[in-house]
């Protein structure tokens, strides 16, 4: 509730035409721009001088940046390794090139981690110093990921009734004890995620006739699905040609 209240107050305090019309605004720095605008609006509401209101906005942005820096620093060590642990070590080795799955003396996939470091650093440098073209590229990647990141949850929700139907699994505790409750919960989750994705895609078209953003969000799941299919096809060929991978 507190987060929703903060979002509503931020939206109400922002002049979208004046604050967000600058071409330098992107999905990476919009948080700081909005917080600066919020601080300036608060300063004006308190009848501060223009200079004081501007300084208050700057301090809002700085405090936001500091808090996010501390939070991200604490999460950095987990976030830098957990995705690789799930993607690289949680899947068959034959799915990836051999260097990606090679572990060092302490059991860390160093090659994959260095590759991740280089890619993340490259994106940061491009967005920070690449100008409008790099910002537009970053925005398009974010648009492609918007819908794509929610589709796995949709598949998990659709699989939930079939998981509940299995009787050969040990379950320490059960929340949904009847089939009706299971189907109702699944239906609600599927409808919410589906409608959220549909309206996320059509919102730019309805509000601003922005077909470009809608097409990028639609193309995201298609692109990542094709990429996943290509990786899986490569895995299938490797398993067929090199059966020794099956024992790893």
Protein architecture, described:
This protein is mainly alpha-helical and 248 residues long. Helices cover 77% and strands 0% of the residues. Helix 1 crosses helix 3 and helix 8 packs antiparallel against helix 9. The longest helix has 40 residues. Keywords: Membrane, Transmembrane, Transmembrane helix.
Structure keywords:
248 residues; mainly alpha; 77% helix; 10 helices
The amount of helix comes to: over 70%
- Structure class: mainly alpha
Total strands: the figure is 0
What is Rg?
23 Å
Largest sheet: none
Distance linking N and C termini:
48 Å
Low-confidence stretches: none
**Beta-strand percent range:** under 5%
Number of helices, counting only DSSP H or I runs of 4 residues or more: 10
Q: Indicate the overall shape.
A: globular
> Would you list the SSEs in sequence order as H and E?
HHHHHHHHHH
Mean pLDDT: 81
